[in-house]
Structure formats: C-alpha cells, structure tokens
Predict the 3D structure of the following.
Amino acid sequence: MALVKLTNISKLYGFGDAANVALDEIDLSVDEGEFMAIMGPSGSGKSTLMNIIGLLDRPTHGDYSLGGRNVAKLRPNQRAKIRRDRIGFVFQSFNLLPRLTAIDNVALPLVYRGVSPVRRLKLAGELLERIGLHEREYYMPSQLSGGQTQCVAIARALINDPPIIIADEPTGNLDSAGSRLVMELLSEIHATGTTVLLVTHNPELTRYASRVVYMHDGIIIHDEKTKYGEVAPTARRALYFATHTTEEDDLAGVSALMNAMPSKDAKTKKSAARSKRQKKKVAKPTISRRQNQ
C-alpha cells in the first residue's frame, strides 16, 4: 500500500520571468515500510521534495496523498498536527537545543502533546536506552560525540512513534564511525516497519536502502530497486567513474621516477663540488629576517 503518493507535484519560487522551477511535475509513490534513498546534485530538488513530503512546504500544483488522505491543501494548523503525529525529522545539523540535556531534547515533542513531565521523561529514557545512550541521558549536547548527538536527534524524531522518518543528509557532519552508528540505527528503525526516506550525496549509504531515486533539475531521472548491503548500480557507476591504472601503469611510473632521480655517484660529485666552492668564499655572518625583526 502506498503510504506517500505524489501526483504531478510542481514547486515554483518567484513570479513571472524570475520564477524558478524547483520541482517539475513529480510523480512518486512510496510504499509503507520502504527504505528509500534520494540522490542528486545540489539544486536538484531533493530537499524541496522532502519538505513537501514532510509538510514543511506546500506544492504549487499537484496532489499529495499521505496514508490515503489528500494533504496538499490543508490549513497550517492541520499540517502541523500531522507533522507532529506522523512524521519524524532528522537534520544534518542535529538541531538539538544546546541548553537542554539529551533526555529533555528527546522528550520535547511530547510537551506539545500535553504529556505529563513524569510520563514524557519515562518514555524518553526508554528510547535512549533502546539506542544505547541511557548512561548519557543527562549529558548536554556539547558533551556528546557527533554520532551520539545525531542518535539523540533520531530518538527525538521517534518519540511520537511516527510511520515516516525523513532524514536529510543525517551523516553530512559526521566522521565515518559516527556515520556508521547513525545508519545502523536507521536500519534498525526500518526493520521495525518504519518508512525511512533518506537524502544523501554519499553513494555508499545506498547499501542501507531498498530503493534509490535519482533527481536532476527538479525531475526524477531514474528509480531503481536495490539489494540490502550493496551499493546501488547507478550510484556505483558514479562512485567508481574515475579511471583506474593497471599494474603496468604503476610500474612504468616508478621506472620513470627512478630515471629522473640522480644516481648515488652523481650526488657524491655534486656534493664535493659544492664543498669546494664554499671553501673559496669568505665566510660572512648572516642575519635572518626573523632575527632582524
């Protein structure tokens, strides 16, 4: 069953001759329980597409059905309620409140639902324990590593048990260890039946996806199913597009380098000649520029 269904979705910014087409009649259907990665160069429309799916923005034209309900033209307060209850967001910059502890950051969405303080701290603590950060629940964001901080942000996105997680470049500010930690957590979340939509520039992250969509200039140019644990075929071609040298090329390069280097005898002769010239010169004290200053 299609959880997300976009039909002829377009998004324009500006007016008249200054109008910019961010999305151009997009048709996209996402089934419940999919892990879909969205790739494309900067300016291709990836983030705009995610903002529309996440109800952070509304399309200029077209229909958007979420769980069988047309949500494209809802009023702002209706959109906000659906965002709160049905969609979890994970951003590249974490967006944790720096003056709140990890557990308070995770519990924050429950404040807007009117959950009591005791209840929301209990739920937040259980979620942090589930992702392995129970011992750091009272740490401030500045006391956590990048990967741990992003995991706290993911826990905050999960606190309302949404059917969809939208992750926009969640590993963009992380090192390889932090990236692996975050992607493994998203994979575990997906295994529970949650639909995950991942925006990424990194072809390696398509290993976690079951489907990869490629965008360019506001349109979807390719859509392919993938196998878990393998880089998507189209992404692999992009990743390994650079030419590779053979062993013969490497040996030829080493040979050329050795020929360009002076031999041991030549070095000895040059050194002796340099010493002879220096003895003929009258030694004068030199003052470096740094000493002058």
